[in-house]
Write a structure and sequence with these properties.
The protein has three domains: about 120 residues, no CATH class; about 80 residues, no CATH class; about 120 residues, no CATH class. It is globular. The strands form three sheets. Strands 6-5-8-9-7 form a five-stranded mixed beta sheet, covered by helices on one side. It starts with a helix and ends with a helix. It is α/β, with parallel strands linked by helices. α9 packs antiparallel against α11.
Length: about 400
């Protein structure tokens, strides 16, 4: 293993080799960089350093410990192959790349070199993305009736066959967790349910079951039906209230976690990671961050992503640190249940009392509900009294 790793140093790019020869890199850093493809080496090289700003314009670049580079590579380069939706054995999916099983860029291909990597992973994000695109194209060609969807919200581009998230309901495959949840539209079936492939966004290439029929009374109930069905309306209101309470509690927990994050990375590093992570969020999650940081309403013609990007570039290091943790929590949570679990895990790590926050939010909403009820009762009283006087006069 020692000889294998040292031989890999001959594959460092000229820029990395120069930094190594000038003792600007440690041996541990160079060994990690040598495992990467040339196009990733220089990106990872930037992650080796932290810039410290002094008085005036004075700056100092310091070399970070090897473990920071290891974490950066795992989060930004390594792609776990067991989670890939395409066939790893298929050598014809992208002929120039061949089979993943025979690929020397796969960590499992050389266990001596990647002894510290726990799961078999791809080290070439560009090749992985090309295979995802080819997989989607081949699947749609084989099944022309397969609906193409994206996990992002918004309006589809002109002529696009990809449905945005707001034009379909994804049918949940997990079992309901609490009473009444089985009646939710996403847990019910209908005649219009069809298979769809995620052509853009998170989980690209995976197959889902959806209902995209705008006339479906189960998954896309018409407004007039909701008005005439008092029970349905009451259930919708109850669900909306529960979701608002859960979301408010989640935002409070997210804020508390963010405040507990220590400022360690410098602004350049925080900005680099924050800009790239926020680009991976869909519009619903971006809206949460916009609300949490008081960015304000998105201007006409401006996307939430642009609003976040503008905010990131002008904010301070402490807020960038918070934003990174908050974005990470939201990024790896695809369902409300996963959001709750992700928040709970982060809250435990940062010693945030989730239960206390949830209890406080429930009390706030109960107090508001009570105030609204009392206000309605007071507003009706004068009218009743006036009617009583008219009856007596008659």
């Amino acid at each position: 293993m020692y000889v294998t790793q040292r031989l890999k140093l001959t594959e460092l790019t000229p820029t990395v080799t120069e930094a190594f020869s000038k003792d600007e890199l440690g041996v541990g850093h160079a060994l990690l960089l040598a495992k990467l493809q040339p196009q990733q080496q220089e990106q990872a090289l930037a992650a080796c350093y932290q810039t410290q700003y002094g008085n005036g314009d004075a700056t100092k670049r310091i070399l970070l410990p090897v473990r920071y580079l290891q974490q950066w590579i795992e989060q930004n380069v390594m792609l776990v192959l067991k989670e890939a939706p395409f066939d790893k054995k298929d050598a014809e999916l992208v002929p120039t790349a061949g089979s993943c099983l025979d690929c020397p860029k796969r960590t499992g291909h050389n266990k001596l070199l990647f002894a510290d990597v726990r799961q078999d992973a791809c080290t070439d994000p560009a090749c992985y993305a090309a295979k995802l695109d080819a997989h989607v194209k081949a699947t749609v060609t084989a099944k022309p009736k397969l609906v193409q969807i994206t996990t992002a919200y918004g309006k589809p581009a002109e002529g696009s066959l990809v449905l945005p998230r707001n034009q379909y309901v994804e049918i949940r495959q997990d079992n309901p967790q609490r009473k009444g949840q089985s009646n939710w539209p996403e847990y019910r079936t209908c005649r219009s349910i069809t298979e769809a492939i995620i052509a853009e966004g998170t989980d690209k290439g995976e197959i889902r079951k959806i209902c995209a029929d705008p006339n479906c009374p189960i998954h896309h109930p018409k407004k007039q039906q909701a008005r005439t069905d008092a029970a349905f309306k009451a259930e919708q209101e109850r669900r909306r209230r529960e979701e608002v309470i859960a979301q408010t509690s989640g935002i409070r927990v997210l804020a508390a976690i963010g405040k507990a994050v220590p400022v360690r990375l410098m602004k350049r590093d925080l900005l680099f990671v924050a800009e790239r992570l926020t680009l991976m969020l869909d519009e619903r999650k971006l809206a949460i961050l916009i609300r949490e940081h008081g960015i304000g309403k998105v201007k006409n013609g401006e996307t939430p992503a642009k609003a976040i990007s503008a905010f990131v570039r002008k904010t301070d290091e402490s807020t960038l640190g918070r934003l990174l943790i908050e974005t990470t929590i939201l990024l790896f949570a695809r369902s409300p249940q996963e959001v709750a679990l992700s928040l709970r895990t982060a809250a435990d790590y940062y010693k945030v009392n989730v239960d206390a926050i949830a209890t406080a939010v429930k009390k706030e909403f109960a107090a508001k509900e009570k105030a609204r009820t009392e206000k309605k009762a007071v507003s009706k009283s004068p009218a009743n009294a006036q009617n009583g006087k008219k009856s007596a006069a008659a």
